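User: Please predict the structure of the protein below. I'd like the answer in structure-token form so I can feed it into my own downstream comparison script.

Assistant: Understood. Taking the following sequence of 325 residues as input:
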Amino acid sequence: MKPWTRRAVVAAMGALPAIRPGAAAEAGNWPSETIRIVVPFAPGGSTDAAARLVAPGLQQRLGVPIIVENRSGAAGSIGADVVAKAKPDGYTWLLTFDSHALMPILVPSLPFDLEKDLDPVTQIGRAPYVTACQPSKPYRSMEDVFAAARKGPVSFGSTGNGTIGHLVMLMMAQRKDVEITHLPYRSGGLAVNDAVAGHVDMMIGSAALLASQISGGTLRPLMQFGSKRLPALPDVPTATESGFPDLTAEAWWGVFAPAGVPAPILARFQAAVIDAYREPRIARQFTEVNQAELVLGDAPALAKFVESQIRIWGEVARANHVRPD
């Protein structure tokens, strides 16, 4: 996959990629109507929560209604396609999750070009993955899960095929030479509901997704995948501490635009997003309550980060022939 350098640099420099008739007037009048943020996953997950958390702040800063629209399915490609084919006028944006970078691998017949049809705006944040189970389950660690899988069927839920959490579980199961049945869900909220109810033996999700259930005692954490232990999980070992050297895995959330949004509009929306997430109440919710880290970088930084994710996780997805839900 070719790097996104050209578009990212264009956006960062504030130059217009291509001057359409009336583009300057559009930029000067923007925004004058409702702005739509497309979330390519079902309600109840961390991506949906990230969008709804920031929507009121964006509305306050931009002075127009902000709606969050869920378009789930096919590893996020259905919602991403809606945005890729939207008019680049600054009224449709994509707020998505870590499977975004792997869509060309997960969906060979992807109906749009990830490089040409979507421009990066900003990476919102990231959070380490965590595995957890319902407290009545007999697992106190991932070693318990692997031991059980050697004796009989064990299942795990995730927020979908091709998410980094899914790929992490594949890697660990292969290294331990065990089979753990994967149950992909259309959203993190659905996966959490079944894990709490005990319908699935365990699950993997971002710390942001599982934080409230872990703190409330409805899920027991087993392992975390950051480079160090989270303050809220001081007694839960990292993957590296548990015999998986250098295995770190973080969920991430980012904002993208239809290719060709006038640079002044893109820059203003980017600034509004960053400013809204830095609002103390929202920042505290994101970092302290959800145990996530705010990044809020520029467009070239997001482009470079996505390229790194493709290098790291693309090989795992290809080797395991991972396809969308």
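That's the full token string. The longest helix spans residues 299-319.
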